[in-house]
Amino acid sequence: MTTPGYAYVCKRPSEEDLDLLWAALLAGIAGYVDAICYLRLGGAFAANMTGNLVEIGLAAAQGQWGDALWCASLLASFLFGVLAARLVLRTQHSARLSLLLEAAIIVAAATGVLGIAAVPVLAASMALQNEAVTHGIVALNVGFITGDLQTLGERLIPAAAPGEPRKRDNRVWLLLTILVFYAAGAAIGALLAGWDEAALILPAALLATAALLPERWTGLAAERH
């Protein structure tokens, strides 16, 4: 029952609120998927290509060429995912389809039918997500944590001349959100890794639900940045 004289108005979330929510969700998914891949699907990463590149160098130095080629395939899959995401964004002008494709890929990996091939497939899905984020949602990476840390440092101490007023920078909170939720997602993924590939159903369901919400709650009708 509403109080007489008052009407409940369901306000559309602000762009800043949407940025924080998307950053939290997508960074959490990236960390979660990385944890499952690392713990249950061969010890490699789906989102963290820096880690995979280090693995290539380590394997090559020890003459483990099969392992080096395996990690190199993940980099190639990620690049393929970036190219696919660019085509989707060019034709659809929205990140929604990329996120739905990502959710479908994660579901396929969760079935277990892909076996070890799930890792490069998931790497492509993480590229779809990251490209959708940087060009259709919050314009920040949710998988390139090294770059986010550098950007955070730059935002904390802006390059301004002495005596100039310091402007408020909402991106600091956005970057902190990405860092915290990436780690939180990895922690949750580690706790649920006992379910093996089936644990991937959770991020797929969350992502698909978020992407299918009406535009007023997601901002996905068109590129916002």
Descriptive notes:
The chain has helices at residues 15-40, 49-61, 65-92, 96-110, 118-136, 145-156, 171-191, 201-212, 215-218. The relative contact order is 0.19. Helix content is 67%, strand content 0%. It has 225 residues and is an all-alpha fold. It contains nine helices and no strands. Helix 1 packs parallel to helix 7 and helix 4 runs antiparallel to helix 8. The chain has a single domain (15-215), classed as Growth Hormone, Chain: A, CATH 1.20.1250.
What would the keywords be for this entry?
225 residues; mainly alpha; 9 helices; 67% helix
Helix and strand sequence: HHHHHHHHH
Q: Which percent range describes the beta-strand content?
A: under 5%
Mean pLDDT metric:
84
From the N-terminal CA to the C-terminal CA, the straight-line distance is 40 Å
Number of domains: 1
The CATH architecture category equals: Up-down Bundle
Helix content, binned percent: 55-70%
Provide the CATH topology: Growth Hormone, Chain: A
CATH domain class = Mainly Alpha
The number of distinct helices, counting runs of at least 4 residues, comes to 9
Q: Which regions have little confidence, pLDDT < 50, spanning 5+ residues?
A: 6-10
Main sheet, how many strands, which sense, barrel? none
Number of strands: 0
